[in-house]
């Protein structure tokens, strides 16, 4: 019974113990819940603090991103946590090798429970990089598996500032060390700093200047003045910061320096900053100038050249020659005035300044040709030579000598005009010779084409299959012959038949042609001299000349305009002729052709008379480029000359000058019509050096019944004529041949038979040969290339002539 009761007591005791323990557990549980709640609140507060931090905060574990604050997101360019949570931390690093280096550097310290930090180059989401500072530590030193916390700050601006400051400091150091001026810093009168320039100026080395009073180096006579200026500045008085005084160098030499001073802070305390410049040589130069100034002015005053002194564009002094040159009353009148008053315009002043001033302060004498203006406004050409009085100090001004070169410029212009005319004449002479030679050879070829086509056409009717083709060949050959004629005119090698003519009458005839040629929207204004305008000229060439100019004028006025043709009797005097090579004074007839068209650019005027040069787009149907070359050739072949004036948008004027003849009765030009004859039975000697041309002539003449003897040159022709002179009724003589020319051959024929009948054949007039042969008694002429009709007509005319 007792044992049973004890057991019951024990059970009750054990039950009470259990109740006590349950109560303790419940109390412990309550304390734990309170602790967890407090911990949660603490963690939430910590996250809020970290989220608001301006520094980027990052929680990583096993190299993976667990959490980051908003500052970190902005720093690396992320929009939300889904973009980076769980990502490998290498996304923050631009280079794998650098990433591993930084990681090993940081984590070696972190593993030991320390805070580790370093500067690093990090990468944003968009790939851009920036400088940053990283601090990293374990989240729980007791449990490294919980990861690390990193604090990241963007230090790009700080880095840039540090670099800029370093560069700036280096620049200032270089400036201070390399400048030739002396830089000094003094505190309470004691020198604390000097640059190499100061040592050089004052004659010391190393640190000999430091810790010494600045006044020790000032010349005793100037010491009080320098100290007074320094103390007045310290009191805040407004006094010049720049002035000059003397210093005494280590070797005892006295030098003049210019000082520029100011106040700064040096190592936290006020200090005086001095910049000193050695001006000894400049002071000596100034004194020398002052000493010699009066003597120099005396010498310059009697110079025949205008001399002036200017400072800051203001006239300070001029000599008598300058006063006379610019038309002032006395030497005092221009003094104090702006130097620009002697220039006709601001543009001219700027142009001259750009030429003269760059070299002045290099110690050079500069010069230029200038347009100057006198007091009365008239302008003259001058030559100015200018030099700086002191190249190292522009404030001393410049001295200039001025010469009136108006007459010299006129003489130079005359020489230049004559030289240009001579070169043009030589060029045209060369081109003329070349053109003449080409025309001669081309004429021979055209003679064959034109002759055989005419020869073959004589046996054809319009219905024959070959008729049209042969006629086209003949037309084309004739067009080519016309082109050769223009080349001969350009080369002044064309045949001329000059007769006295009234140019007014010829212009009347030409204007009739022009009225049907020029477009209707072009008005013609004809203004002819009231008095007769008589010249010796070839009417056909004059017509061609005016037509060429008129056609060119029409093309220059596609929208319409006015073409003016004028004639006038004028006298060219010595002044006019002196500027134009080969032109002699006397009576001339001036023919003017002008238009209101688009004009010619100044850069092209010198070339417009060149053969095959054209201001128009090259088009065979619009011209060959020989038009104006032919015009010039015609004018010069008539002993005249031509000028041209033009301005873009204002039209062009050509003036042609022909030697005038005394007014006399002008014979009427009666064109003699020669009937076309079939031929004859006479014997003809044909002399031609070109074999194909010779064969053509033989073929044509024999077809029409003539007996033909032929020779290839003058020597052979004389041998044939000597043997057959009793049978030969006519000689057709080529002018230009090898071994013996046409003139020499004709002279020999006349010795054999003074009554010999000769027709000359020519495609090129050379050195007056044609005129000489005509004077010897030639009965007629045919120009190459000739056709069958032309040759037969001339042969028949001469044979039938008494």
Layout of helices and strands:
Elements: H1 2-52, E1 56-61, E2 64-68, H2 70-76, H3 96-111, E3 116-123, E4 129-138, E5 148-154, H4 156-178, E6 182-187, E7 190-194, H5 196-202, H6 220-234, E8 242-248, E9 254-266, E10 269-278, H7 280-301, E11 306-311, E12 314-318, H8 320-326, H9 346-360, E13 366-373, E14 379-388, E15 398-404, H10 406-457, H11 467-490, E16 499-502, H12 503-517, E17 522-527, E18 534-537, H13 539-555, E19 561-572, H14 574-578, E20 586-595, H15 602-605, H16 627-637, E21 641-647, E22 651-659, E23 683-687, H17 691-703, E24 707-711, H18 714-724, E25 728-734, H19 742-752, E26 758-762, H20 769-776, E27 780-783, H21 788-800
Parallel strand pairs: 17-19, 23-24, 23-25, 25-26, 26-27
Antiparallel strand pairs: 1-2, 1-5, 3-4, 4-5, 6-7, 6-10, 8-9, 9-10, 11-12, 11-15, 13-14, 14-15, 16-18, 19-20, 20-22, 21-22
Helix pairs in contact: 10-11, 10-17, 11-16, 12-13, 13-16, 18-19, 19-20
Task: Summarize this structure briefly.
The protein is of the alpha+beta class and 802 residues long. Helices cover 43% and strands 24% of the residues. The model is unreliable at 617-621 and 667-677 (pLDDT under 50).
End-to-end Cα distance: 203 Å
Q: How large is the count of helical segments?
A: 21
CATH class category label of the largest domain? Alpha Beta
- Calculate the mean pLDDT score and round it: 79
Description:
By secondary structure, the protein is of the alpha+beta class. It has five domains: 53-160, PAS domain (Beta-Lactamase, 2-Layer Sandwich); 179-278, PAS domain (Beta-Lactamase, 2-Layer Sandwich), CATH 3.30.450.20; 283-404, 2-Layer Sandwich (Beta-Lactamase); 496-659, Histidine kinase-like ATPase, C-terminal domain (Heat Shock Protein 90, 2-Layer Sandwich); 683-800, Response regulator (Rossmann fold), CATH 3.40.50.2300. The protein has 21 helices and 27 strands. The strands form six sheets. It has a five-stranded antiparallel beta sheet, sandwiched between helices. Strands 7-6-10-9-8 form a five-stranded antiparallel beta sheet, sandwiched between helices. A five-stranded antiparallel beta sheet has the order 12-11-15-14-13. Strand 1 and strand 2 form a beta hairpin. It is elongated. Residues 617-621 and 667-677 have low confidence and may be disordered.
């Amino acid at each position: 019974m007792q044992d049973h009761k004890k057991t019951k007591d024990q059970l009750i005791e054990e039950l009470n113990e259990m109740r006590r323990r349950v109560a303790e557990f419940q109390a412990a549980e309550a304390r734990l819940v309170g602790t967890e709640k407090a911990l949660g609140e603490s963690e939430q507060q910590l996250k809020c603090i970290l989220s608001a931090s301006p520094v980027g905060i990052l929680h990583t574990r096993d190299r993976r991103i667990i959490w980051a604050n908003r500052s970190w997101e902005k720093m690396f360019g992320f929009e939300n946590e889904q973009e980076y949570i769980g990502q490998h931390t290498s996304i923050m690093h631009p280079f794998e090798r650098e990433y591993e280096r930084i990681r090993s550097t940081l984590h070696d310290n972190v593993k030991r429970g320390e805070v580790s930090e370093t500067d690093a180059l990090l990468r944003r989401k968009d790939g851009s990089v920036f400088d940053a500072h990283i601090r990293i530590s374990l989240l729980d030193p007791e449990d490294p598996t919980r990861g690390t916390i990193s604090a990241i700050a963007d230090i790009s601006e700080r880095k840039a500032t540090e670099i800029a400051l370093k560069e700036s400091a280096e620049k200032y150091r270089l400036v201070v060390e390399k400048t030739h001026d002396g830089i000094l810093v003094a505190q309470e009168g004691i020198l604390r700093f000097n640059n190499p320039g100061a040592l050089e100026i004052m004659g010391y080395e190393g640190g000999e200047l430091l810790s010494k009073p600045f006044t020790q180096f000032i010349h005793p006579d100037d010491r009080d003045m320098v100290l007074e200026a320094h103390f007045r500045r310290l009191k805040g008085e407004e006094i010049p910061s720049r002035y000059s005084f003397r210093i005494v160098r280590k070797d005892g030499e006295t030098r003049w320096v210019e000082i520029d001073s100011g106040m700064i802070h040096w190592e936290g305390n006020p200090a005086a900053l001095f910049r000193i410049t050695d001006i000894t040589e400049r002071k000596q130069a100034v004194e020398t100038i002052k000493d010699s100034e009066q003597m120099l002015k005396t010498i310059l005053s009697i110079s025949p050249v205008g001399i002036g002194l200017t400072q800051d564009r203001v006239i300070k002094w001029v000599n008598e020659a300058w006063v006379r040159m610019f038309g002032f009353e006395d030497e005092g009148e221009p003094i104090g005035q702006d130097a620009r008053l002697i220039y006709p315009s601001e543009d001219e002043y700027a142009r001259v300044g750009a030429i003269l001033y760059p070299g002045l302060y290099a110690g050079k004498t500069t010069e230029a040709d200038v347009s100057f203006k006198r007091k009365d406004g008239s302008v003259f050409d001058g030559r100015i030579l200018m030099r700086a009085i002191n190249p190292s100090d522009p404030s001393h001004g410049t001295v200039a000598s001025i010469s009136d070169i108006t007459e010299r410029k006129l003489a130079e212009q005359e020489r230049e005009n004559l030289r240009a005319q001579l070169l043009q004449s030589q060029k045209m002479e060369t081109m003329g010779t070349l053109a003449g030679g080409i025309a001669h050879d081309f004429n021979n070829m055209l003679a064959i084409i034109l002759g055989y086509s005419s020869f073959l056409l004589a046996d054809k009717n319009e219905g024959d299959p070959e008729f049209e083709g042969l006629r086209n060949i003949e037309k084309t050959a004739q067009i080519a012959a016309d082109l050769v004629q223009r080349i001969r005119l350009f080369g002044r090698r064309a045949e001329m038949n000059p007769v006295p003519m009234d140019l007014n009458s010829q212009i009347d005839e030409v204007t009739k042609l022009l009225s049907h040629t020029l477009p209707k929207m072009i008005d013609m204004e004809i203004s002819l001299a009231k008095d007769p305008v008589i010249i010796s000229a070839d009417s056909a060439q004059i017509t061609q000349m005016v037509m060429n100019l008129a056609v060119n004028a029409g093309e220059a006025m596609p929208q319409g305009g006015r073409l003016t043709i004028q004639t006038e009797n004028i006298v060219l005097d010595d002044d006019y002729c002196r500027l134009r090579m080969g032109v002699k004074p006397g009576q001339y007839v001036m023919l003017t052709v002008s238009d209101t068209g688009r004009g010619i650019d100044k850069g092209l005027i010198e070339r417009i008379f060149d053969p095959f040069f054209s201001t128009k787009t090259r088009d065979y149907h619009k011209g060959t480029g020989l038009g104006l070359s032919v015009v010039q050739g015609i004018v010069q072949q008539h002993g005249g000359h031509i000028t041209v004036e033009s301005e873009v948008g204002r039209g062009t004027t050509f003036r042609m000058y022909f030697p005038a003849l005394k007014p006399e009765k002008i014979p009427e030009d009666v064109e003699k019509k020669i009937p076309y004859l079939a031929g004859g039975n006479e014997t003809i000697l044909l002399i031609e050096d070109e074999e194909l041309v010779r064969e053509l002539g033989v073929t044509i003449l024999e077809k029409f019944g003539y007996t033909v003897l032929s020779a290839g040159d003058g020597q052979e022709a004389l041998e044939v004529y000597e043997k057959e002179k009793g049978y030969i009724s006519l000689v057709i003589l080529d002018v230009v041949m090898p071994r013996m020319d046409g003139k020499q051959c004709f002279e020999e024929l006349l010795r054999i038979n003074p009554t010999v009948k000769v027709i000359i054949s020519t495609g090129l007039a050379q050195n007056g040969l044609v005129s000489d042969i005509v004077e010897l008694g030639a009965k007629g002429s045919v120009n190459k290339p000739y056709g069958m009709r032309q040759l037969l007509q001339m042969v028949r005319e001469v044979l039938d002539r008494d």
